[in-house]
Amino acid sequence: MVLMDKLFRQNQAFAATDWLIDAVIALGAFGFACLQLTLAVNLLIPDDFMRRLMGIQAMVPTAMTVAAIALTTLPLVLRRKFSWAVFAWTLLSWCALQVELNGIALSVVGPLVALFTVASTRPRGEAVAACALAAAVFLFAPAPPDQSRILTQLTAFQNATLALAAAFAGYGLREHQERTRAIEERALAAERTRETEARRRVEEERVSIAREVHDITAHSLSAVSIQAAAAERLVERDPAAAKEAIAEVRRTSKAALEEIRAMIGVLRTGEGPAETAPTEGTERMADLVAYLEGAGVQASLAMEGYDRTVVPAFIDVALYGIAREAVTNIVRHAGASEAFVELAADGAAGCARLVVEDDGRGLAGADVSGDHHGLLGMRERARLLHGAFVAAERAQGGTRIEVSIPLAQKEEPHDRSHG
């Protein structure tokens, strides 16, 4: 979307200055032609005797010559709106006036700019036709009767060569613009693909968390069912034990409700049934270390400060999922030789913390696609649990990922007006 907005602003700015640019080009061509009218012959043949011998007279601007130059240059202000009409007008005006005003002195800058415009805005066939027409006019246009034949031929050849150069330049500009447009279209398509992929990754995270909710619910309800059955059997024989079982039911259900309430916002926007495959928690961290070592990465794990008994099950599972994604990135993309994983849970501070470090290529190698979808998934998982996620380059090289998740999850606000 950012790229589309940028292109739209560029197109608007170009349209607003289009007429001004063409007016400046037309005035510039007019001034150049006036300057050439008075200086070209004198600079080309500075000796007055030689000019007389060749039948050439230095032009002195008059009202008629200025009007002739204006007829071949000022219409260029319309060159982009009516490219063929302006080209035909400037070329025919030059052909009709060059005999009257001495063809060597009347500049061809107007027809050349018009030819350049046709070649840069029209299809290739039209560009070739315009170039051939201009070259034919320049080569075979009638010359003034008192002008040297040799000089006439040299001038005709020069003008035809300039026409060919202008056509090639216009065609080259058109090819460059088409390639640029193709690149921009590919960039827009790639941006749309990245947005779609990002949404897909986020939805995958939602499905994964839905599995975690399923596991929490299944475990809690199983415990409630067992305690309820025990209370039912003991209610007459041992009322005290039955009361304790019922109290345990209440505690278990309360804990499960708190865990589910903390994650229910994740499920509100999800569509379709969630997968119910069992999830894994931090008891499998040793498997991640084995995975790293199997890939040739020297790994170390620190869990001395992590007490699973104070960490809710869904947070424990989320921490393991983030660690697994980080380790997968290290093996696949980082090119690291060493890695370090640390887990800590501070009951007093009320948060669980995960740190994953490596000495690989850094964030440039964190994701092979260049869009860091792995980092996006980890960040989304931490955000949904009201946690903080930081991925940064290490000073000594490599990447450091740090996640902090509060153990006491905030309850989602409710609109009491709707019950």
Automatic annotation (TrEMBL):
* A cellular-component GO term for this protein: membrane
Q: Which SUPFAM superfamilies match?
A: ATPase domain of HSP90 chaperone/DNA topoisomerase II/histidine kinase
Q: Which GO terms describe its molecular function?
A: ATP binding; phosphorelay sensor kinase activity; protein dimerization activity
Report the EC number(s), separated by commas if there are several: 2.7.13.3
The protein's matches in SMART domains, at most eight in alphabetical order, are given as:
HATPase_c
**Reactions catalysed according to its record:** ATP + protein L-histidine = ADP + protein N-phospho-L-histidine
Q: What InterPro entries does this protein's entry cite?
A: HATPase_C_sf (IPR036890), HATPase_dom (IPR003594), Sensor_HK_TwoCompSys (IPR050482), Sig_transdc_His_kin_sub3_dim/P (IPR011712)
Domain of life of the native organism? Bacteria
Q: Which residues form the signal peptide?
A: none
**Keyword hit for Lyase:** no
Q: Which UniProt keywords apply?
A: ATP-binding, Kinase, Membrane, Nucleotide-binding, Phosphoprotein, Transferase, Transmembrane, Transmembrane helix, Two-component regulatory system
Enzyme superclass (EC): transferase
Q: Where is the Histidine kinase/HSP90-like ATPase domain?
A: 314-409
Residues that span the membrane, as ranges: 20-44, 56-78, 84-115
Q: Pfam families given for it?
A: HATPase_c, HisKA_3
- Protein name (record): histidine kinase
Phylogenetic placement of the source organism: Bacteria, Bacillati, Actinomycetota, Coriobacteriia, Eggerthellales
